[in-house]
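Notes to self, Helix-turn-helix domain-containing protein:
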Amino acid sequence: MSETHELADLLQELKERSGRSYTALASRTGLSRSSVHRYCQGLTVPASFGTVERIARVCGAGQRELDRLYGAWARAEARAREAERDAGREAADEEAAAADEEAAAAGVERPAAQGDVPGTRGTSPRPRGAAWIAGSSPRQRLRTLLLAVVVAVTVVSAVTFDRRPDSGGTGSTGTASGGTVDRPSGQQAEGPYWALAPKPLDREFFGVTMNSDTGLMPDFAVSGVRLWETETRWAQVEPERGKFDWEILERTVRGAERKHLPVLFVFGGTPGWAAPGGPMTPYPDDSRAAPPDDLADWEHFVEKVAIRYRSRIGAYELWDSVGATTHYDGSMATLAEMVRRAARIIRRVDPDAKVACPSFGKLWTAEGRALLAKFAHTGAYGFCDTAALKLHPRRADGPPEEIIELAAKAEAIFRRNDEGRRVWGTGPGAEVDDGARLSARRANDYAVRFYLVGLYARRSFVERMYFYAWGGRNIPLVVQPVGGPPTEPGRRIGRLHGWLAGQRITSCGKGTGVGLPPGVYECVFLPGESRESGPTGPRLAIRWTQRGRAVAELDKGAHRLRRMDGGVERVRAGERVVYGESPVLVEYRA
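result:
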């Protein structure tokens, strides 16, 4: 039995046992009907095991069947890649031969291609312009003429395009960075832009990473806490094999429970006894960046944590800062196996808990993105509910809006691997603390914009954002020192949380694409709904700029402005408003 047929037969067997049609499977997995059919018939191999698992789980597959499917998928995928390489070489040879034939028929020698053996092909340059068209094959001449027509039409369209402003927006001119901004000529929609059916925000969207072992929690409104720099690494909870110290973790979880804050626990920091030859982490304990020598030790620790905190910890992140060798220095294959084993244990012990795959960092570098792609290719994401990524600007003091570009880069990697992954933004981490410090003015709205760009990046499947960090003092932005009151940036996080509590997000866009001056970002929200009375509030729009200011007239229905400093103003349609780096909330009449 070939590798592809082995996988297809297993999937087809599950499908028949479930009694579901291809259409029903497509509806429940989010795949197209044709894709499900191709996979079950062995016509193609999914690029990721996550796709296989989605089909299998809908069909009611158990863990043993998933394990068997994983082995079949790995063999089929390896064979498909080998066949793809062979086909690529054959296609290249055929293309070269066809080019030689066409060139000979036209009486022109083809230039030597890279890899040609010297002396076996001519080196005369290809004729240009009309001479080449005349000497080409009929197919080449038709292709060239069609291209010329397309170029001509494009040029005419660019010259004659209606220059009137978009009637769907504010229709206003504006100023940015103090200068005058003319109405755009031609179609110049800024982006990216997305609009979807209104959807409630994830209940834990406004998260923070904790930087304290005291058990104290934020005094401003947030919706979830992530436990990493809380002295709860594996090496600290299990300092000796089989001997556990739960004191700090228990204190922290109880502190979160008192504030009704859901907890995301992060695994990481292998004890020295489990990886004695592994490199040390930067933390002042005996934790190692290597995976354990015996994965049974990993399974035992994961099981102990999951059992003790069943129904108390709502989500688990299966490692922190992969990409930084100071945090993980093992192979992607080993990490994928750790994910598979941990996810299986957590789902058995606490089926309601969510599982986040390890958070990947250094995504601004090609090496970091290649590592993420390599991990995605293992199929490990199929065992997780979501991906975790270190989403942050290029520098610690860079504009938060750079996160949008980084999220798009990660989205492209997931798409290439057939992964429609939801993402939790968990960063930055300590690796980007390059000594930069934010001015008081910039600090005030920096954290707020971190969350807003997470909403803007929802198009790239971003579902939650965990700001780094709460409780610390030696970081670029302090939102609340342990034992002290919230800073102004912290109070503004709480204010944004209050603005958007219970709202449903429906779109985000930028500038002329949404009828605003260039450089103005916007996210739009509709009121939540109750079963009895329907919508429960006004439509809202939050607007801000990355830098500078812009002036625009308010559109129909606007009647109140709320500012991050707590100010509230009555306004009316047609009134000119200045948008800047401090976000503004526009309320519309119901």
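- The chain is about 40% helix and 15% strand.
- The two ends are 64 Å apart (CA to CA).
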